[in-house]
Amino acid sequence: MRKYFVTGLLVLVPLAITLWVLNLVIGTMDQSLLLLPERWRPATLIGFHIPGLGTILTLLFVFATGLLTRNFVGKQVVHAWELLLTRIPVVSSIYSSVKQVSDTLFSSSGNAFRKAMLVQYPREGSWTIAFLTGTPGGDVKNHLTGDYISVYVPTTPNPTSGFFLMMPRADAIELDMSVDEALKYIVSMGVVSPEYVVAASKNLKAVPPQI
Questions:
Q1: What is the DSSP secondary-structure string of 71-119?
Q2: pLDDT tens column, 158-181
Q3: Alpha-helical runs (H) found in the chain
Q4: Nearest to 30, CA basis, from 55, 47, 12, 13
């Protein structure tokens, strides 16, 4: 009975969490309907609320925004809007920081979180998975001698928090696995092991520790 109960949990728990997350996301995006005038809201027009309609409208709004800003006129409007925001105290600091991060993460030409790396952390001989985020910039690179890279070391089982490290490129090993596979490996605390991880662990003996 215990075996069957555990098997049932393994099937139902991921499904329940998935449905809970979807309900949370759809419920949050449905709040966008509150931005419409009351007489234009579906509950007023047809007499009842349609779950998910706010999500569809939000996605259409994001798509339309991207479509309009891809042309010359749209780019000029966005540029003028950004100039206005950069002149507002406090708002300029927040907007500039968020825009730099979003441009790095969502840019199709960027390299942020495109590669999974194997690094020694927090001490020599202790290995963990990190994600390549780029190379040191600004005045930082003037104080570093040699070829350095910037990596993000996520925590387990919550990869949204972690540590930002700058280390010599020679001290990191590029893994032959996708970012999705690496995230699954981290979140599962090593339980969900991709096939490539096994191959990489066998090669660790041939790689001398470099710190």
A1: SHHHHHHHHHHHHHHTTSTTHHHHHHHHHHHHHHHH-TT--TT--EEEE
A2: 887 889 999 999 999 999 888 888
A3: 2-30, 42-45, 53-68, 72-85, 91-106, 179-187, 195-203
A4: 55
- The rounded distance, in Å, linking the Cα atoms of 132 and 197 is 17
How would you label 148-160 residue by residue, b for 16+ Cβ within 10 Å and e otherwise? bbbbbbbeeeebe
Q: pTM score, two decimals? A: 0.54
Nearest residue to 167 (alpha-carbon basis) of 206, 208, 100, 121: 121
**Which whole-number Å values give the CA distances from 190 to 105, 129, 179, in the listed order?**
25, 11, 15
> What DSSP character marks residue 46?
T
Q: What is the largest CA-CA distance in the chain?
A: 70
Residue position matching structure tokens 């020679």: 170
| Domain locations in the chain as residue ranges | 2-106, 116-206
Q: What is the pLDDT of residues 8-65, one digit of tens each?
A: 887 888 788 888 877 777 777 777 766 667 777 777 777 777 777 777 877 888 888 8
